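input
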Amino acid sequence: MARYYFDIDDNGVFVPDEEGIECETKEAVREAAIDALPKMACDALPDGDHHVISISVRDQADKPVFHASLTLAAGWH
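output
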């Protein structure tokens, strides 16, 4: 099983993952990244009308393998 690192960018604040988690498949990497976004958003929002949270996943060789993001864009008409 390979170890992957899920680095977070929370509205411009970068938090590298130094521990990582083991995933059996690429689909498991994708699911872990996408599942984490709404949970992180619950902690971060609302703090304004624009917010972007993203996760960049890298493998054990530091090669980027997946990216996902969640964006809040709010405003009056």
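quick obs: The helical segments are 26-44.
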